[in-house]
Design the sequence.
């Protein structure tokens, strides 16, 4: 298989928060790899913008260290590194004052030069509005400009709406890119290809044939180092409302009429609006919250959050239902948590058992077919099948996985491994191309908050604290009961 790289047009990218962790770990290495792949033109310009008093050479030195830390030695050639570093520039700006903005405008040059301008806001959300205002005030926004904002996009529906309103003062909806790096993962996009480019699964992709769906995002690390920030959000705001909601939408949405940004996002929005709302009684019965205890060499959540009375959850499990013809009666179980047994993200689609089995003596030991879409750490797809156990001695059935790991199945080329692009690489190039398919629309964000806000409110009104769970475990015991009551069980979070 030959990967096709389509170059993008010359552009200017301004990264606010250019000295931060995301820029060092993901954005700069990702841009370097796009140059290496021949997708980014050498006359593209990348401007770092932050409060630190650096010049171009100082920023290039910082970027060189980032490449040495986060790009493999085999991928770094001296000539290409120098070419990339020469594309970098730096402007000291202050989002809370007028300092540096005229310099940024001067260095970007005329607003009618025809180049795409992208402004990436890798900063705290409280600065989004101020930066948008000052971009407009300094005259650097062009008709072909785009603004990229990271989550959290508000902390409830009201604040998300206010943010959308403020951004729309200076940018049209077509210019606003709300980034969710999960949507840039190869496997997530392959979920759409599997469903809509193959006749095999789509006829079965409904409540008649699918028993239930499990979506898991497990992390082995805690919130150490960012406990005070995380304690203001929790797992529901940090993961469920955005990342997991997007995975749910892509799994459950109807086929769009065309593969274009608004058609895809229209169908995702329909899924969110079809989610059955949860009353306080539903919240008590269909959701579980947890906090990790100390263990496996780490502190407890309460210690990491520096608040012994914190009622913020580091774990959430819930049972969601989609009230439409395709999915009526098919539950979607979502779970996410910190300090669990291992790091893994997957979507598991469990099909119903055959309506009649002729192998009656072996049915109890077998499970139905399941399609497992792995997002991390090893992106790929597994289809669990039942076959005859090889050998004489009668008809003995066994389960086997049909496994495709993308790095193995698609990465081999001429006897070597082809590197799979990071999600941020793909998404940044989509920004430059003006392709919003993998980005959230404003009404999507607000609709997701409209569903999660009552759950968060019910937790607060109950006065109950999250259930403690052991670090290195699969989460609270009540999360197991959430499925046991339905006669089902979670897939193992395997270490």
Sequence:
């Amino acid at each position: 298989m030959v990967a096709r790289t389509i170059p993008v047009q010359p552009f200017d990218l301004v990264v606010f928060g250019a000295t931060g962790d995301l820029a060092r770990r993901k954005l700069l290495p990702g841009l370097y790899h796009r140059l290496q792949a021949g997708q980014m033109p050498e006359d593209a310009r990348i401007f770092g913008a932050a409060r630190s008093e650096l010049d171009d050479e100082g920023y290039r030195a910082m970027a060189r260290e980032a490449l040495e830390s986060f790009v493999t030695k085999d991928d770094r050639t001296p000539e290409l590194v120098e070419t990339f570093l020469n594309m970098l520039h730096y402007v000291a700006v202050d989002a809370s004052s007028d300092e540096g903005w005229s310099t940024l405008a001067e260095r970007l040059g005329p607003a009618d030069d025809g180049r795409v301008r992208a402004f990436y806001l890798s900063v705290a959300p409280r600065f989004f509005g101020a930066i948008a205002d000052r971009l407009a005030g300094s005259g650097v926004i062009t008709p072909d400009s785009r603004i990229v904002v990271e989550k959290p996009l508000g902390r409830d529906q009201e604040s998300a709406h206010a943010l959308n309103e403020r951004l729309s003062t200076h940018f049209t909806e077509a210019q606003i890119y709300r980034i969710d790096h999960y949507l840039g993962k190869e496997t997530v996009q392959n979920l759409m290809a599997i469903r809509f480019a193959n006749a095999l699964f789509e006829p079965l992709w409904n409540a008649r044939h699918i028993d239930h769906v499990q979506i898991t995002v497990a992390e082995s690390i805690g919130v150490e180092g960012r406990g005070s920030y995380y304690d203001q959000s929790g797992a529901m705001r940090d993961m469920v409302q955005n990342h997991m909601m997007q995975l749910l939408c892509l799994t459950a949405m109807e086929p769009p009429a065309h593969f274009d940004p608004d058609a895809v996002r229209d169908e995702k929005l329909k899924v969110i609006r079809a989610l059955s709302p949860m009353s306080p009684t539903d919240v008590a019965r269909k959701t579980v919250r947890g906090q990790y205890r100390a263990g496996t060499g780490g502190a407890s959540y309460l210690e990491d959050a520096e608040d012994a009375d914190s009622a913020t959850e580091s774990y959430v499990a819930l049972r969601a239902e989609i009230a439409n013809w395709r999915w009526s009666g098919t539950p979607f179980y979502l779970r996410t948590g910190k300090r669990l047994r291992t790091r893994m993200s997957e979507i598991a689609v469990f099909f119903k058992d055959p309506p009649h089995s002729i192998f009656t003596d072996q049915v109890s030991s077998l499970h139905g077919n399941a399609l497992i879409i792995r997002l991390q750490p090893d992106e790929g797809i597994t289809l669990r099948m039942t076959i005859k156990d090889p050998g004489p001695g009668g008809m003995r059935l066994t389960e086997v996985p049909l496994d495709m790991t993308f790095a193995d199945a698609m990465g081999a080329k001429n006897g070597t491994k082809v590197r799979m692009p990071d999600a941020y690489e793909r998404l940044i190039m989509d920004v430059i191309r003006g392709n919003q398919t993998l980005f959230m629309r404003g009404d999507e964000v607000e609709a997701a908050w409209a569903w999660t806000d009552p759950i968060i409110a019910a937790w607060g009104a109950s006065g109950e604290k999250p259930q403690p769970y052991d670090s290195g475990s699969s989460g609270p015991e009540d999360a197991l009961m959430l499925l046991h009551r339905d006669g089902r069980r979670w897939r193992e979070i395997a270490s």
In short: The domain at 183-421+442-484 is CATH 3.30.360.10 (Dihydrodipicolinate Reductase; domain 2). The chain has a mean pLDDT of 89. The CA atoms of residues 353 and 367 lie 8 Å apart.
